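Exercise 4. Each item below gives a protein and its sequence. For each, produce the structure-token representation.

Item: General secretion pathway protein GspL (Ramlibacter albus).
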Amino acid sequence: MSSLVVLLPADSSTEYAWALTPDGRSVQDHATAPAALLPQTRGAGAEVVAVVPVQCVSWHRVELPRGTAAGSPRLRAALEGLLEERLLDEPDAVHFALEPGARGGDSAWVAACDRAWLRNAVQALDQAGRPVSRIVPEFAPQPFETLHVVGEPERALLVACGPNGVMSLPLSASALALVPTPGDDTPRVADPAVAALAEQVLQHKVELQQPASRWVQAAQGGWDLAQFEFASSGRARAMKKLSTGWGELLRAPQWRPARWGAALLVAVNLLGLNAWAWKERSALETKRAAVRNTLTTTFPAVKVVVDPRVQMEREVAALRQATGVPSGRDFESLMAALAMAIPPGKSPSGMEYANGELRVRGLALNPGEANAVTTALKANGFNAVPQGDALVVTQEDVR
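Answer:
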């Protein structure tokens, strides 16, 4: 799944730091560029993910009222009421995003950031032809404590992430005293540009991590700040998830065995279908050859076989006419079969015969007798169909 991960500028800058990932995990390329010059993502599942810098987000723990959850029409009003006393700005100027999976009656994290700033940053990307699919925070609360040092030496930030939320402070010994005391096993991660400064202040070895890798890692998290006015429609979100999942299925390395298995299954089925079709064609051709052979053997005068059934009927009719033997379509055959089927004491008042069809009137059969006559005629190869006050008898068409 190809993704363009863009760090939104924390100030009024028009430059966007970006990272391009081919699979959602590794960094293929990274740089800084204006919105119009950002790389284009192509292919199934391609998306643009906007990352909100840590200094632009505040985190608040709230108790959600019962009956409110993600998608609830009164969620925004409920969050404004819960956070009104904790915000430095008016609630109308703040964008809120609720923790994934939060339910009414439970405690949940709420991310808050400047609404106008976020709108302008996202609109700039949209206008440059890089519409944002998701908005994620650079750092988010997590189960275990970690310390990060990010930025440049002159503006280095100390970021503490853990179950108590996210706190960012200017890197200094005094700031270190404000964060929870880290244990010896607490991960300490720093950008390469501030690694030496971080080890000096933290008095501990740090693990190096490129900023681009951190942004790609943030894009893998479960948070999506694109809620309320920034949320896509339900249909757009469903299509986005479908295209993303399909793109990962087509490209991700971990799905390679499944792709090979599916291709092998399709190939085996195609071979099986072709073999079955060949067998059926061979059987059908064998039957056709047998019919043609029967026709030419029985009637040697037939030299060219075009339609075996029609030609055989024609030859049989000619032979019957030459020998005087009646066929099942003749009046005598139809009348004899009817005479054997009708109940005693029943006699027709009128009969008509034309083109192999005998129409008999005046039998006055009740439903049970009519059914018995039809069954008896069918057993001898004839059909009987009531039509008004008449019974129409014909030879059964055998093909």
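Check: The first helix runs from residue 75 to 83.
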